[in-house]
Predict the 3D structure of the following.
Amino acid sequence: MTTALACDPGTLRRGACPSLAAPMRTGDGFLVRLRPVAAALTADDLLALANLARETGNGLIEITARGNIQLRGLTLETVPRLAEGLAAAGIVPQTGVAIETPALSGIDPSEIADATPIADALRNAIAAAALTLAPKLAIVVDGGGVLSLADMVADIRLDAVEVSGAVAWRLSVGGDREMAQPLALLSSEMVVEGAMTVVAALAAAGAGTRGRDLDVAALAARFNAPALPIAGTIPPHPIGVHRIDGQPVLGVSPAYGQLHADRLAALVQSLSACGATEFRLAPHRTLLVRGLSEPALAVAQEAAQREGFWCTDKAPGRSVSICAGAAGCASASFDTHAAADALVAHAAEWLDGSADVHVSGCPKGCAHPARAAVTLCGTADGVGLVLNGKASDPALSTIPADGVVPAIQRLGALSRNRRNDHETAKSLIDRTAPALFVSAYQGQQ
């Protein structure tokens, strides 16, 4: 293989998805994101990924919020070697439009339908159509089950429902299962054709068009089929213990979704010794472990915790999104991990999962491009505080980087003093005047 690059990554526009064919330039080199075609990975697969992360990058590995793998610190010379190493290990990355299915599709008896055949057929239809679509277009095919994708936002959603004892698929656009705009209820035989109608509408509207941009009423009129409302029940967090067909499945997450290859290798070896037979990537930066017996479960959890992984959905840090920070990225201006640890230790009132908290080393906001309730963002002038905005938004206040941890301690004290019994973090943040946060952040209380 002479090259794995189909374009000049130095000219990639922001908003494209980094891949083997188009790695993204970041502050610590190039980044490659991949989602293996195989739903289940073996211990050997993960050990191969760990080795490749060391050999071709800086050893940093991330599991993303949508359950992808990212390798950091690559160079133009090592990206082709990564492609060759993946091929040699038999790890085939998905290409084309991102189509997501529940991590336990096909093996969860509680699911309404196995989403995999529909997703595969739709992926093939999109590839055959050769349409130009938005680079970050996302499609969810959700068959339900214990770890459904009800809370995952997508441009196009296909949600399985039971109607008169048969399986049908609700087609909707622009949101999670509750907020997406419904278009039609389709049979399994017609669902791919119906989804392709939406795909064609997106392409016709322009390469940057997303599901939220479509004229829903006009599109729904083309189907002449009823659209069924679906309750937006939030699935359990994938971190923790689940039971599928009577067998335990352990969800573990590296702290803040980031780890070094050495930690991954140590985890895999320890879990394999406990009887783990397969690993599945899942949303919310989670790795699902199968094959553990009930007696081995506690030992496996201890091993994961020893390697710095979270094993419970109550881990407060799961609500914090952070980038590599100054330790792993030249664009970052402060230690994001230290700030995140300070949030966990001193501002746990914000971390119940009801509000997004973002710690960004620079205004690019790679770890959480969307708005967050609270963002701490590194700049040339220090670390800025942004409320209900993106990392790139103007900060309400900026302080020197060495004052961030004391500032978090003050913010935590303010929140504890103001919080009502059983109040959510979102409610607390929303009802607190920004001036109070600024005063605490600056140490003017």
